[in-house]
Amino acid sequence: MAAFKYKAISRDGANVTGVVEAYDEFEAVEKIKETCRIVTSISEATAAAGFLQKEIVPSKISQKSLALLCSQFSIILTAGLPVVRAVELIAVQTADKQLKKLLSQVAEDVAGGYSLAQSFENKGGKLLPSTLIETLRAGEESGTLEIAFQKLHVYYDRSYKVKAKVRSAMMYPIFLCVLAVAVIAFIMGFTMPVFTDMFSSMDIDMPLLTRALIGFSRFCGRSWPLLLAVAAGLIIGLKYYSATEAGRMRLSRLQLRLPALGKVAVMKGASQLANTMSTMLAAGLPVIRSVAATARVMDNYYMGTRLSSVVVGLEEGRRLGDCLRECGCFPDMLVEMASVGEESGSLEETLDTISTYYDSEVTVATERALSMIQPAITVAMGAIIGVLVIALYLPMFSMYNGM
């Protein structure tokens, strides 16, 4: 058995932490739920590692692979093939080695009498998102497994496309930043020493800006190992801080407050909430289970934590819209539409519609943010390089004026 660290909300609404022993993560969650209302986070407890050591664990299967997987399952099951045969066929066809190995193990479990959802839990707990397993379990319970896979295909395909658009849009600003750093490093490392030697041999009285730049260049040349060590220390420190509870909370809240990019994060979180919940409701999960599962897969940790508190309110008999409003981190339109859908009995359809809206809003918000960021980066890069060039040529201008 393994030990699992967890954070949960107790039956009286208090935040609790602890350690539980279980054979896998899903058994651990079931044990925790015997005394708590909702599990907000859980991870396997490992022995303390060295400063630079990190437990090597397999990476989660990509959303693109999950979209294709769910599409294949939906088509094969709709054609009437049994589940075990569907798993075997997809295992043979898939090119993803990690997924192929997982499906081969799942096929053995299903052939041995386990349900598909339980088999995915047993063999792919660390590789698969909880939304997939919860939705499949609901599909099996209602006898609509092929429909559950169809909904999951649409969900993962949309999620992948939204993230791909954001990544693609961010490539140009990242390229500009890398180019700026490369140009500045070239000037400081190669051009500056040439001018410094020339000015020294000509015994020119250099302006303050040039002297400061030469001094900084010499400092970087002598102390570059120290500068690299400081930069590495900052990166490692930030990485470890972001892995702590306080660090994840503060950084995720900061992400929502960033100028320009903060709106992108809010729109993306709203899209993820609506898309995930509509998919799980369509598969037959009740609202409380859908909210709890959605909270565990939210990309923004702060949003996920706030969404976990909604479960407590729902169990007390409160309305979903009111609980979402109290979170304070979701757009008003999402909250109002959730209230309307809840009152009209069409929550699933309403969330599906609003998720499509927020998918497009993520793209629009990203384009608006980049329309502000790209000129700012270009101006800053031009200003810095301009100052460097002026500092290099000022002594020469002074020399020509003195002739």
UniProtKB/TrEMBL annotation:
The lineage of its organism: Bacteria, Bacillati, Bacillota, Clostridia, Eubacteriales. Pfam families: T2SSF. This is Type II secretion system F family protein. Keywords: Cell membrane, Membrane, Transmembrane, Transmembrane helix. Residues 70-193, 274-395 form the Type II secretion system protein GspF domain. Belongs to the GSP F family. It is found in: Cell membrane. GO terms for cellular component: plasma membrane. It comes from Lawsonibacter faecis. The chain crosses the membrane at residues 169-192, 223-241, 376-396. InterPro entries: GspF/PilC (IPR003004), T2SS_GspF_dom (IPR018076), T2SS_GspF_sf (IPR042094). It is a multi-pass membrane protein.
